[in-house]
From TrEMBL, chain A:
GO function term, MF aspect, one: mRNA binding
Entry-linked PANTHER family: LSM1, U6 SNRNA-ASSOCIATED SM-LIKE PROTEIN LSM8
UniProt-annotated location(s): Nucleus
Gene name in the database record: LSM8
Alphabetical list of InterPro entries matching this protein: Lsm8, LSM_dom_sf, PTHR15588, Sm, Sm_dom_euk/arc
Species assigned in the record: Acanthoscelides obtectus (Bean weevil)
Cellular component GO terms, alphabetical: precatalytic spliceosome; U4/U6 x U5 tri-snRNP complex; U6 snRNP
Protein name per the record: U6 snRNA-associated Sm-like protein LSm8
Entry superkingdom: Eukaryota
Description of how the protein assembles with itself and partners: LSm subunits form a heteromer with a doughnut shape. Component of the precatalytic spliceosome (spliceosome B complex). Component of the U4/U6-U5 tri-snRNP complex, a building block of the precatalytic spliceosome (spliceosome B complex). The U4/U6-U5 tri-snRNP complex is composed of the U4, U6 and U5 snRNAs and at least PRPF3, PRPF4, PRPF6, PRPF8, PRPF31, SNRNP200, TXNL4A, SNRNP40, SNRPB, SNRPD1, SNRPD2, SNRPD3, SNRPE, SNRPF, SNRPG, DDX23, CD2BP2, PPIH, SNU13, EFTUD2, SART1 and USP39, plus LSM2, LSM3, LSM4, LSM5, LSM6, LSM7 and LSM8.
From TrEMBL, chain B:
Superkingdom of origin organism: Eukaryota
First-listed, main subcellular location of the protein, grouped into a coarse class: nucleus
Protein species of origin: Acanthoscelides obtectus
Protein function: Binds specifically to the 3'-terminal U-tract of U6 snRNA.
Gene3D superfamilies registered for this protein in UniProt: 2.30.30.100
Keyword RNA-binding tagged: yes
This protein's GO CC annotations: Lsm2-8 complex; spliceosomal complex
Subcellular location: Nucleus
Organism lineage string: Eukaryota, Metazoa, Ecdysozoa, Arthropoda, Hexapoda
Comp. bias regions, Basic and acidic residues: 86-95
Homology family: Belongs to the snRNP Sm proteins family.
A Pfam family the protein falls into: LSM
GO biological process: mRNA splicing, via spliceosome; nuclear-transcribed mRNA catabolic process
Protein name: U6 snRNA-associated Sm-like protein LSm4
Keyword vocabulary terms for this entry: mRNA processing, mRNA splicing, Nucleus, Ribonucleoprotein, RNA-binding, Spliceosome
Gene of this entry: LSM4
Amino acid sequence: MASGLDSFVNHTVSIITSDGRNFIGTLKGFDQTINIILDESHERVYSTASGVEQVMLGLHIIRGDNVALIGLIDEELDNRLNLANMKAEPLNPVVH
Amino acid sequence: MLPLSLLRTAQNHPMLVELKNGETYNGHLVSCDNWMNINLREVICTSRDGDKFWRMPECYIRGSTIKYLRIPDEVIDMVKEEAIVKNKGRGDSKGMRGGQNQRNRPAARGNFGGRAGKAPGQGGGNRPFQKQKPKQ
């Protein structure tokens, strides 16, 4: 089955879930319902009070129901970001 | 690699399951199925706010209520590539279904045909039945 996600496998991706969280990790696999295997993952927690906080998480299976967006990360650009100085409003959950 | 293959490989390993309602369940995975329904043993349930805890020996979680599962890192290195075996299985089962359907349909037609064929032959049987009708 052809899917646009094939080209993301074994690359670093950013996943935004429908509860408004942002997971970064290596996409190791997916299936037809967009269940996702995310390896060496961490969560980026955004706030307006302080810089972006990174929480190490490890190996995850994220259920497809909960996935809102999957983006390919340009690692070179990502490494240049100074997350400690970045402030942003946290995302709101998706309202169904 | 398929997420459900990884989950199957994680059987007998500890894991954290977060549900869509925010509750988390920590326990050892006993079994899982193709819908991500899972059985956990020695479970600690934590409320959404993390302020209440429940211990239970066993629980069953419907797959559709899961947000994500957190699995020990080493499990991903233990996944056996089952893709080929699974495809064979699916192919066989499809073949089986097709075969059963094809067998059932002619059999069903045959049965009806048989009855229809006998009915005219039992004309003698039909007449008394028709006679009985006006009586009743």
